[in-house]
Amino acid sequence: MSEDCIFCQIVAGDIPNRTVYEDDDVLAFLDANPLAPGHTLVIPKAHHETLGDLPADAGASVFETLHRLTPVIEEAVDADASNVAFNNGEAAGQEVPHVHGHVIPRFEGDGGGPIHAIAGSPPDLSDDELDDIAARIAADA
Ligand code: 5GP
Ligand code: ZN
């Protein structure tokens, strides 16, 4: 637990929340400032800041919960779809430095955008640059 982490305080039961699922490793609760009805956060109970910091077994538990809860959340609020995403690091908009996956229910005509709308200007990359990027990722994948 990280003493000054708001999500660790939620895990410890020190901050009231609307829990929708809990097991030994994972907690899922409604976002306090929902972008849509049913907006849910899924977190590992252990404090890790980003996905890269998260041990593989905790990552598997978080994804297993996202996988199982997403259709349940959609059904509960009669959503047509959902965006499931992580703000992974401060530059990507992460405000709470404890890994959390957002499940944001979506509705036909709700006026929102796709995940492609989150980045700034798309880069204009040459084939060589794309080959180089793919090779660098593949080398450590
Ligand atoms: P981030 O920008 O870090 O990906 O998202 C953090 C999310 O946590 C925000 O959507 C925010 O509304 C939510 N949040 C922050 N503090 C609390 C809290 O005390 N309780 C709950 N339920 N959600 C919170
Ligand atoms: Zn924490």
From TrEMBL:
It comes from the Archaea. A motif (Histidine triad motif) lies at residues 98-102. The keyword Metal-binding does not apply. Gene3D superfamilies: HIT-like. InterPro entries: HINT, Histidine_triad_HIT, HIT-like, HIT-like_sf. Its EC number is 2.1.1.-. It is an enzyme of class 2 (transferase). Signal peptide: none annotated. One of its GO terms (biological process) is methylation. The active site is at H100. Keywords: Methyltransferase, Transferase. CDD domains: HINT_subgroup. PROSITE patterns: HIT_2 (PS51084). Residues 6-113 form the HIT domain. GO terms for molecular function: methyltransferase activity. This is HIT family protein. The lineage of its organism: Archaea, Methanobacteriati, Methanobacteriota, Stenosarchaea group, Halobacteria.
